[in-house]
Design a protein that fits this description.
Layout (H helix, E strand, L loop, with lengths): L2 E5 L3 E5 L5 H8 L9 E6 L26 E8 L8 E4 L4 H4 L1 H4 L1
Parallel strand pairs: 1-4
Antiparallel strand pairs: 1-2, 3-4, 4-5
InterPro entries: CXorf65-like
Pfam families: Il2rg
Length: 103
């Protein structure tokens, strides 16, 4: 079983999700992220996995991802107090490759 995570300028990484969520997210943070960033994944149908809420979890990542699916790496930007959470795609040119997801 594997998943593909897209980021940057047409970069992607194949990952084995048979690991804890904390290990998966720490590895993904090496892909164009700063050490303290929160990240999440978006599947190609536009569904957010909400991994950012479980970043320190020892639960298995395979419970949240689908085999052989492609995901887009997102940076989670939490607002101060009343501001909502925003998500920033870490994949360049998302509008061209996945126009529906960019909206």
């Amino acid at each position: 079983m594997f998943i593909t995570v897209k980021f940057g300028a047409n970069c992607e990484v194949l990952l084995n999700p048979y690991c804890q969520i904390i290990i998966l997210t720490e590895y993904l943070k090496k892909c164009q992220c700063e050490p303290g960033d929160s990240i999440d994944l978006l599947d190609e149908s536009g569904a957010l996995l909400n991994l950012s809420e479980m970043e320190g979890s020892s639960e298995s990542a395979r419970n949240y991802v689908q085999e052989r699916q492609q995901y887009i790496l997102l940076k989670v930007i939490r607002g101060d107090g009343l501001e909502p959470i925003h998500y920033q795609s870490l994949m360049e040119n998302l509008e061209q490759s996945h126009p529906l997801l960019a909206a």
